[in-house]
Amino acid sequence: MTIHLRPDRALFRFSGPDAHRLLNDVVTGEIPSAGNGDGEKAAAWALLSPQGKILAEGLAGHAEGALWLDVHQSVADDFFKRMKMYRLRAQVVIDDLRESHRVGFAQDAEPDGIRHADRLGPINMGWRAISPVDATDEWVQDDAPYHRERIGAGIMHQGNDFPANDAFAHDIGLDILEGIDFAKGCYVGQEVVSRMKHRGTARRRPVILSGIDAPAGSAVMAGGREAGIVGQVVDGTALASVRLDRITDPAAVTVGGKPVDIALPVWATYRLGEVIAEDE
Fold it and tell me: Which residues contact 165 (CB under 8 A, 6 or more apart)?
């Protein structure tokens, strides 16, 4: 069994009688109310600003009577601070596990210990593994296989592909990948998410770009206009959330002044060139 360390993930544990209610009332996803951490599906979620922009995102799963959430290291301090603020008088203990635990990725076999199935919509990424630091000595220190897999599947990650407070949940496909619970009550940024769903005003969506000879942060150009920004590049392939209406000729898309190939994820329900009505 091979587990790859994901060094850019920060882990937090939420415990106490009000932990589930707190998270379910604050983030977008359908947070699980039970589980033993022995392979149950983790929930995708995002913490939004009141304006609907993603401040943090990751997976949530139950284990040992608590909820375990991972976020990108770049937003960990802000996430911790905000969740303590939202906690108010709720009976919730929030433990920062950045020094004591690590997050890993396994695909060839189900790992031992705390693990949750990493499935987003129809995409099966394998397992999210969680272990104390002293139990991760044999983990592979190369996370390129994970990023190669997620980029090929069209799964965008904050910190790798876009910064905090820059993208809407729809921009990275969370509405399609089951990272938004449209049936539950209000949460931070819910009005924006609901409006984009019911009015169909999501103009930006993830695409897969290959044949890239340029660094992350390069502009995706189409018809002389910028359509998006390239995220993390692995083996010449990357993701970008692009303006669909600007990709009218896929063969003419360039990055760094050179032509690239553009494709939609297999889970996409949108089309290149799609014109979306402006939000009112």
Answer: 49, 53, 54, 55
Number of Cβ atoms within 10 Å of the Cβ of 255 = 24
**Number of residues that make up the chain:** 280
What is the rounded CA–CA span in Å between residue 183 and residue 166? 25
Q: Which residues of 187-235 form beta strands (DSSP E)?
A: 204-210, 219-222, 225-229
Per-residue pLDDT tens over the stretch 78-125:
999 999 999 998 999 999 999 999 999 999 889 999 999 999 999 999
Closest C-alpha to 31, from 70, 62, 52: 62
Q: What interhelical angle do 76-87 and 19-26 show, nearest 10?
A: 110
Q: What is the DSSP letter of 231?
A: -
DSSP per-residue codes, 177-192: TT---SSS---TTHHH
What torsion, rounded to 10 degrees, do the Cα atoms 239, 151, 70, 88 define? Answer: 30
Which residues does residue 13 pair with via DSSP β-bridges, in sequence order?
Answer: 68, 95
Return the DSSP state at 162: B
Q: To which H or E segment does residue 115 belong?
A: strand 114-120
Cα–Cα distance, 32 to 30 (Å, whole number): 6
DSSP 53: B
Using CA atoms of 41, 164, 159, 205 in order, give the dihedral in degrees to the nearest 10. Answer: 70
How many angstroms from the chain centroid is the CA of residue 153? 12
CB atoms within 10 A of CB 33: 11
The residue type of 120 is L
The whole-model pTM stands at: 0.95
- For residue 163, what is the DSSP state? -
